[in-house]
Design goal:
four-stranded mixed beta sheet, 34% helix
């Protein structure tokens, strides 16, 4: 058992969400599904209560806690990508499965979890600082899904 695990609150779809993540991202899997031993405020005995899963090797616990709490951009998964094909694959999987596009490489899955699909070239440009970072940042600010070719062009000036 991991010393630190990300716990994500779902209304009732933790198992479906975990299965989706495992089907999309490498080094991701559903490890265990635990059912409620008795009734609880938002469910009955035998309902899926928690799901142990990983996303890109990060341990997570999906908790079916009911509708009391909603997700926000204050929490997101940031997925580093190596090229446009990988960026497109993850972005399209999330958005195409009932999710929503946002700005600057962000999107939201159908369960309300926020994702940053971030090509490494963008991260590298920002780390470089100076004019290269400014140009890449300004290019990114006009994008939804990140366009790797435009970020690379901005880096070069």
């Amino acid at each position: 058992m991991a010393k630190n695990t990300i716990c994500i609150w779902y209304d009732r779809d933790a198992e479906e969400a975990a299965g989706f993540y495992a089907s999309v991202f490498p080094d991701s899997q559903v490890k265990a599904v635990h059912r409620a031993p008795s009734d609880y405020p938002s469910g009955k005995a035998g309902d899926v209560l928690t799901v142990d899963f990983t996303v890109c090797g990060i341990p997570c616990l999906g908790l079916n806690g009911g509708p009391a709490f909603k997700h926000s951009e204050a929490f997101s998964f940031q997925i580093a990508t190596d090229d446009q094909e990988e960026t497109d694959r993850y972005w399209n999987a999330i958005v195409g499965n009932g999710g929503q596009e946002s700005a600057c490489g962000w999107c939201k899955d159908k369960w309300g979890i926020n994702w940053q699909i971030t090509p490494r070239t963008l991260t590298e440009a920002l780390a470089a600082g100076g004019d290269e970072a400014r140009r890449a940042f300004e290019a990114m600010m006009e994008m939804g899904k990140i366009d790797v070719a435009k970020i690379d062009a901005a880096r070069r000036g």
